Design the sequence.
């Protein structure tokens, strides 16, 4: 049972962080390989708030997320001001996450340096994670279907046209980045209180690549796709330990293969709405004859 | 020759005026000391051989490209230093010579974007979708469908933009441009790639929206009958090698020897190029 | 003052290695408008090949270097063929190119890790010591790295500006479509460009491996080169060299006068500050997409 719990909790945390990446990469078209950095920011902030200042866990999670969101402006503002250069942003995210890890690794005073930050109790339980995932999905859905989210999608499809049609690029991208980093930060907070400690080594480029993998495999402009893959990607390596050595190699090859043959990912452009759920339900559970009936009915 | 037209109007009511605009790319003067003034509600043509700098004029107005020198005033305010999105929100919208729709979005979503380039509710309201936000969305939906209807695309509202035939994509771009509620509309070769019938239909459509919506319109166009027809009561600017070659009524332009020479020159050039290509 | 000179000399040698890498990014960017994220894998690959040529096959350094360069060329060219070409041909969005490149990078780096293990290895060359120039003692290997790096860049310059294929590449970097209409073979251009990145990454990998160590994730240092090419101005080769030398010297000074732990932090701060004041880099042009 403990094993299943671990998968649910780690899978849920991965879902929340991957939803953050889905918002910035999947919906806004900005490539990130540094979201582990935002997880670290949120995680450490949350841990310090709870252990040192005795802030309630839920509030500390939110403040940790907000902190990660604010820090994202350090790279968001300079990178987005130079337009049409998505590359700047990708490199800046990597640079920021490496810088954060370096600072955490060498600062022993408050955050414990390379030894990590310890002394947290196990507050991240299965119900907490399940509630957090449901809220995260709900709010992500609300955002991407809102006028803000649609402006993000427009930017991802044609930045010049979006700007010429009056969309403020800097503002819209910063909003998406803030929310995205907020999600990563909350995921980091949850992780610290599951592991009961935090170490800079949790937040390497490998974790960022894992998050990117969830979104690339799950599909761009989709929430449900990355949600499923984020969970599966945590569950599968746990179930098949031997796979772990080959995991990143396989991910890498899959990145290439998916871009070549199905760049929209498994569920790209699939909106998470009830129409989709109904279609899926029909496809899976409706008996064959009934399906034919509806098709005839439609005609 | 154009002085007589200008003299009738009050200077302070100018909608847009370009003053001695120049821009240089490397050594090439793509636009050279170009001036142009439009009054509210006018529809003027901008023509010239390929590479004359017509699209560059639009890029300068929308500040996609910064001018090397010169000034642009829109409703009395300078546009220099304003970003393209600000300029759009001030009331200038455009279409593109090479269609630039949002390919994976539906026709309806493309138009809708122009309407909510500035979202109609706050970010917090977006997360909980308050009744006010829902009302704003319903209002946007209604307006987007009206615009689609205006360009006869209502039946295609749910189609992906990239799956629409070329002619319809051009009309969709027009609807999207209209959605930003402009007062000045810049149309970059709206009839490009259309056949005779489609051109006639487009002329009707543009005239209709011009009269109905009271837009001021600058239209770049290569189909001479389209320009001559739409601008018959106003004037046409002719650009060549970045500078103004002539301005006047369609009749004056058609008989202007310099214009004829510039176009013939291009045709000769074109023939030369196609020969070179086939070798 | 001596310490200062010492740092500057050392900064120049690391800047020269960054230059090789930054020019590799800039070359690909100038023609294809995307950042070749697999580049750091090529670098690690080149370093490993030279390492094993010497330590397992006991080949002399120069032979090992040439073998490593040839293998890196093969790696770079086949990555282009497998991971980029069809995306490029169907004009896929840049995001897709970046993801594919990132995938190639992940796969190659982790294959190296699987085959060779993650430990740090000392590059098997003898220490050729230092010599003194006035008060300053200079590592001979640093000088060699600088000379060879600039030699390679000089050859590249001659190739680009004094030969016909070079002209083709420059034409493609201005407008790849027009260039192909004028009879320039796009596939040949791609082959040459990626072959050049193979050479650059392998040489950089070898010298970086000698200066520090050889390990699968050593390519992370290419982030410095990316930063350098952004600081200079993305897509321009001279700007990449200027950015690299600036970054190499400044970060060595930071390491010498403040603390070597803040060296990497500094390069990131440098990027952020430059982008704040020069949104397109020091020598970069603004938006260049024609409408
Ligand atoms: N962003 C740019 N960079 C360099 N040259 C440009 C750019 N935009 C346009 N030009 C050049 O300016 C000239 C005018 O182009 P354009 O305005 O597109 O002509 P057209 O009248 O056919 O619309 C052409 O020679 C073109 O190559
Ligand atoms: Mg044009």
Sequence:
């Amino acid at each position: 049972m403990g094993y299943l719990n671990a998968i649910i909790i780690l899978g849920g945390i991965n879902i929340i962080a991957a939803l953050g990446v889905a918002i910035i990469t999947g919906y806004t078209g900005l490539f990130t390989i540094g979201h582990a950095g935002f997880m670290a920011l949120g995680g450490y902030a949350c841990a310090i708030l709870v252990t040192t200042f005795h802030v309630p866990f839920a509030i500390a999670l939110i403040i940790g997320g907000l902190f990660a969101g604010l820090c994202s402006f350090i790279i968001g503002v300079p990178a987005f001001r130079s337009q049409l250069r998505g590359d700047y942003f990708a490199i800046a995210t990597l640079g920021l996450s490496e810088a954060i890890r370096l600072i955490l690794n060498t600062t022993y005073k408050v955050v414990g340096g390379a030894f990590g930050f310890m002394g947290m109790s196990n507050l991240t339980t299965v119900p907490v994670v399940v509630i957090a995932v449901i809220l995260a999905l709900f709010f992500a859905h609300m955002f991407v279907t809102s006028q803000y989210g649609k402006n993000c999608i427009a930017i991802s499809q044609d930045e010049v046209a979006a700007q010429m049609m009056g969309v403020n690029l800097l503002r819209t991208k910063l909003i998406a980045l803030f929310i995205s980093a907020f999600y990563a930060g909350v995921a980091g907070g949850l992780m610290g209180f599951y592991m009961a400690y935090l170490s800079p080594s949790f937040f390497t480029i490998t974790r960022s690549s894992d998050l990117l993998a969830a979104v690339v495999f799950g599909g761009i402009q989709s929430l449900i796709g990355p949600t499923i893959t984020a969970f599966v990607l945590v569950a599968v390596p746990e179930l098949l330990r031997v796979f772990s050595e080959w995991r990143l190699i396989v991910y890498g090859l899959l990145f290439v293969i998916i871009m070549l043959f199905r760049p929209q990912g498994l569920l790209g452009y699939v909106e998470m709405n009830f129409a989709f759920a109904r279609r899926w339900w029909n496809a899976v559970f409706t008996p064959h004859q009934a399906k034919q009936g509806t098709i005839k009915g439609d005609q | 020759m154009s002085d007589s037209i200008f003299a009738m109007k009050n200077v302070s009511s100018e909608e847009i005026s370009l003053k001695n605009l120049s821009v240089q790319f490397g050594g090439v003067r793509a636009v050279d000391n170009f001036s142009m003034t439009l009054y509210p509600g006018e529809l003027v043509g901008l023509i010239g051989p390929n590479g004359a700098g017509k699209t560059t004029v639009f890029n300068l107005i929308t500040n996609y490209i910064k001018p090397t020198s010169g000034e642009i005033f829109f409703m009395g305010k300078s546009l220099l230093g304003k970003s393209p999105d600000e300029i759009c929100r001030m009331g200038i919208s455009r279409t593109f010579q090479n269609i630039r729709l949002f390919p994976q979005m539906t026709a309806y979503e493309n138009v809708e974007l122009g309407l909510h380039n500035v979202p109609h509710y706050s970010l917090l309201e977006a997360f909980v979708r308050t009744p006010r936000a829902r009302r704003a969305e319903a209002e946007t939906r209604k307006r987007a469908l009206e615009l689609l209807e205006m360009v006869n695309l209502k039946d295609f509202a749910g189609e992906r933009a990239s799956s629409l035939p070329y002619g319809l994509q051009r009309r969709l771009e027009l609807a999207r441009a209209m959605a930003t509620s402009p007062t000045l509309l810049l149309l970059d070769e709206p009839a490009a790639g259309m056949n005779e019938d489609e051109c006639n239909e487009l002329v009707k459509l543009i005239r209709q929206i011009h009269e109905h919506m009271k837009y001021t319109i600058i239209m770049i166009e290569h189909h001479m009958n389209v320009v001559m027809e739409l601008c018959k009561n106003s004037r046409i600017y002719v650009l060549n090698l970045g500078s103004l070659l002539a301005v006047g009524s369609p009749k004056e332009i058609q008989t202007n020897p310099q214009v004829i020479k510039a176009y013939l020159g291009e045709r000769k050039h074109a023939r030369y190029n196609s020969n070179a290509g086939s070798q | 003052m001596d310490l200062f000179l010492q740092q500057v000399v050392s900064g120049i040698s690391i800047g020269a290695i960054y230059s090789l890498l930054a020019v590799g990014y800039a070359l690909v960017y100038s023609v294809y408008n995307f950042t070749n994220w697999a580049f750091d894998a090529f670098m690690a690959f080149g370093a490993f090949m030279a390492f094993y040529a010497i330590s397992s096959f006991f080949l002399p350094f120069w032979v090992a270097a040439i073998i490593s360069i040839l293998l890196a060329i093969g790696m770079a060219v086949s990555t282009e063929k497998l991971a980029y070409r069809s995306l490029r041909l169907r004009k896929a969005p840049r995001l897709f190119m970046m993801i594919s490149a990132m995938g190639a990078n992940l796969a190659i780096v982790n294959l190296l890790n699987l085959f060779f293990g993650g430990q740090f290895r000392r590059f098997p060359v003898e220490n050729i010591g230092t010599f003194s120039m006035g008060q300053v003692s200079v590592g001979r290997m640093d000088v060699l790295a600088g000379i060879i790096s600039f030699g390679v860049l000089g050859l590249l310059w001659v190739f680009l500006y004094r030969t016909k294929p070079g002209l083709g590449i420059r034409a493609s970097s201005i407008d790849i479509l027009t260039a192909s209409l004028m009879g320039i073979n796009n596939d040949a251009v791609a082959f040459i460009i990626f072959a050049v990145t193979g050479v650059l990454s392998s040489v950089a990998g070898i010298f970086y491996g000698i200066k520090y160590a050889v390990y699968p994730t050593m390519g992370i240092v290419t982030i410095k080169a990316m930063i350098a090419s952004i600081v200079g101005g993305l897509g321009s080769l001279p700007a990449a060299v200027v950015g690299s030398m600036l970054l190499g010297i400044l970060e060595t000074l930071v390491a010498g006068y403040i603390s070597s732990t803040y060296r990497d932090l500094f390069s990131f701060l440098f990027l952020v500050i430059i982008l704040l004041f020069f949104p397109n880099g020091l020598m970069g042009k603004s938006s260049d997409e024609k409408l």
In short: Chain B has eleven helices and ten strands. The interface with chain A takes residues 62, 64, 83-85, 88-89, 93-94, 96, 100-105, 109, 112-114, 116-121, 123, 126-129, 133, 136-137, 140, 176-177, 179-180 of chain B (CB under 8 Å). The mean pLDDT of chain B is 89. Strands of chain B lie at 16-25, 28-38, 43-47, 69-74, 77-78, 92-94, 184-188, 216-220, 236-240, 243-248.
